[in-house]
Each structure stands twice: as structure tokens, then as C-alpha cells.
Amino acid sequence: MTPDRAPGVRVSARLRLALSYALFLVAAGAVLLFAVYVVLRYVPDYPLTAANPRDSGTSYAASREEILGAVVGVSAAVLIGLAIIGVVGGWFLAGWVLKPLRRINEAVLIAATGDRTHRIRLGGRNDEFRQLADSVDHMLDQLHSTLDVHERFAANASHELRTPLAVTATMLDVAARHPDRQDYPTLLSRLRQTNDRAVGLTESLLRLADAAAVEAAARPVALDDILRTCLAENAAEAARRSITVTAQLAPTTVLGDPALLTQLATNLVQNAVRHGGSPGDAWISTTQRVGSALLRIENTGTPIAPDTAARLVEPFLRGAGRVAGDRGYGLGLALVQRITQTHGGTLDVAARPGGGLVVTVALPTG
Fold it and tell me: How far apart are CA 60 and CA 342, in angstroms?
């Protein structure tokens, strides 16, 4: 932890600017008066006399020393006046210049109290303060969106974790009230299924947290080989669900972490197999491009609205038709997005015309 900064004496930026303006004004005046003094002191270099020689006996001509003394006295008064004008004028000028900064500070303080809807929306000319205000507004928008997602995630996670526990408690309560009427093998089987679901959900949440916290290793990985392995592991389930999988896997090498990319490919393949309808089809392809590689997975299924499809990357959000007993946990695409972001790639989830999804992952190759 870094030590707290000592409070010290607070000096506002407005006061510092005002003093700076006054100091600059006094310095400029001092230079100008010094130049006048030098001119009077050394030019001309002959003794001063009366303007009309005939009046030399009756007119008085001030000596050089008297003139220089008067200049010095007047210069001191002028410098004091310039200092006062600089401080007062600089104070008001600094306040006018720093007014946008006060609005930015007020907006940040309001946001710190928990109000996530307040924005600066600074108008006027496009100067540094306007750019700073726009950047703060953008930051507040991003924070608002992120906090909303986290709040929904916490609420949904609590609900998902509470559901199997509530089901378990209900079954145990019923068994305790009527112990002689229970089919204990069936009860134990249901309890095991409910417990397995809770364990699986917890493991999915841990994988999601690990993908967000771990930095992906940067080494070449053959993405097409990973997909072939995933397809072989899920071939039996695809056959059981009558899903016809068509794969066009061109040699594709990306830069990333093999374990995380395997998890990404597994989630996408299982998503296409389990939510592609029965019977149905799934098409999987990889394409190597300059600087990036594309993984595209398309599957048939229930029609999904375009806005719903784009939001399926949110945790626990499921599309239509994903309410069967084998519905999963709603974390598959959320984990895919985290892994994609960890690798510096992009994920696009779109509704497929006629039903189903089209998922496209772009990953960097270098």
C-alpha cells in the first residue's frame, strides 16, 4: 500500500494563477520602467540646461539626479499598482478560466456519492477542458454500464445458486415429514442431480472468474487442431441429439493460451450441439487472415430476436428454447467473451435467419 499523502496547506489553483498573473505583470512593468530609467540615466550624456538659453538666469532646469529620483518614485508606485491590478484581475480571470474545471470536479463528487446518472455535458469551444469533460462523461458511461452488468450478474448468480439449494431443502423437508412414504432411491437420485448441478454451476463461476483474472499466455496455438479435438469429444452427444456437424477447418494459428482457447472452443461447440434443435445442423469453420484468425460457428435452432442474441454474452442470460432439463448455466458465451477479451480479440453473436445463432470469434495471430 502506498502511504497517505500529507495534507499540508491547501493553496487553490485559482490563487496560484492570480499570483502568477500579478508576478508576470509586475515583471513586465519592471522591465519597461528599467528601460526608461536606463534611457534617462545614460542618454543624453551631456549636462541638462534650460530649453531657451536667454532664460538660463530665470528658469529652473531639474538636475539629472532629481529626474532619476522622480522616475524611481513613480516606478515604485506604478509597480505597486500593477501588482494590485494583477492580483485582482488575475483572480477574476483565473475564476473564469477554471469554471469548467469546477463543473468537472462537482460531477466527479456527485458520482462518488452513488449517483451514476449525472453527466457534465460541457458546452462551448472545443478546448482542453471540453475534451477532459467529454472523457469524464465517457468514463462515467462505461462505469455505469459495467456496474449494471455486475449488479445483474450478482443478482442472477445468487438466484442460480439459491435454486438448487431450495430444491434440496424442499425434498428433505418432504422426506422428513413423511419418512414412510418416500421412494428413497428416487429421492437420492434427485438429490444427487440437484447437487451435481450446484457443483457444476460453482465450477462454471470459478472458470469465469479465472478467465477474467488470468493473463493469457502468448504462444502460437493451432486453433484448428483444438476444434478437431472438441468435435471428436462431442461427436457422441451430437449423434444422440441428431445434430449434423459440418466442419471446414483450415490450418489456423493464433497467439494465445492453449487451455483458455480449448475452453473457448469447447463452449462454442457444446453450445451449437446442445441448442441447435433436434434434429438440426451446425457449421464450424476456421479462416486464417493477415493479422487475425476467424472462428465461425453457425447452428440451427429456435428463432431469437437480434437484440436478445447480442445480449447472450451476459452471464445467465439464455435464449428462447434454453429451458429444458439440460439447459446449462447460461455462462457459456459469457466465458467465451471473457476469454476472447483476454486474448485481445472480438466476439460477435448474431441471430441466424430462420433460427439459431451465428457466432464469430476474431483472434490475433501476432
Answer: 92
Tell the residue number behind the cell numbers 441429439, with chain if given.
241
Which burial class, exposed, middle or buried, applies to 346 when counting CB atoms under 10 A from its CB (0-12, 13-18, 19+)? middle
Task: Give 158's contacts (C-beta < 8 A, 6+ positions apart).
Answer: none
Please state the rounded mean pLDDT for residues 172-201.
81
When pLDDT is cut at 50, 70 and 90, the band that residue 149 belongs to is low
Bridge-based pairing of strands 280-288 and 243-249 is parallel
Torsion of CA 213, 214, 216, 222, to 10 degrees: -110
- Number of C-beta neighbours around residue 281 at 10 A: 17
Can you tell me the distance from the alpha carbon of 178 to that of 176, in angstroms, rounded to the nearest whole number?
Answer: 6
Residue 101: band (very low, low, confident or very high) from pLDDT cuts 50, 70, 90: confident
What is the domain partition of the chain in residue ranges?
A: 13-118, 152-213, 219-364
Nearest Cα to 119, choosing from 98, 95, 144? 144
Is 219-364 a CATH 3.30.565.10 domain? yes
The span from the CA of 92 to the CA of 114, in Å, is 33
Q: Taking the alpha carbons of 189, 195, 198, 201 in that order, is the dihedral positive or negative?
A: negative
d(CA 292, CA 253): 9
168-to-190, 193, 198, 199 alpha-carbon distances in Å: 9, 10, 10, 13
What average pLDDT is seen over the chain? 78
Place of cell 539626479: 65
Q: What is the pLDDT of residues 35-92, one digit of tens each?
A: 777 766 665 555 555 555 555 555 555 666 776 777 777 778 888 888 888 888 888 8
In this predicted structure, which of 69-78, 219-228, 319-328 has the lowest mean pLDDT? 319-328
258-306 pLDDT, tens digit per residue, is: 878 888 898 899 888 888 777 889 999 999 888 889 999 999 988 888 8
Tell me the CA distances in angstroms from 131 to 207, 312, 320, one per residue in order.
39, 34, 43
The pTM assigned to this predicted structure is 0.51
pLDDT at 136: 86
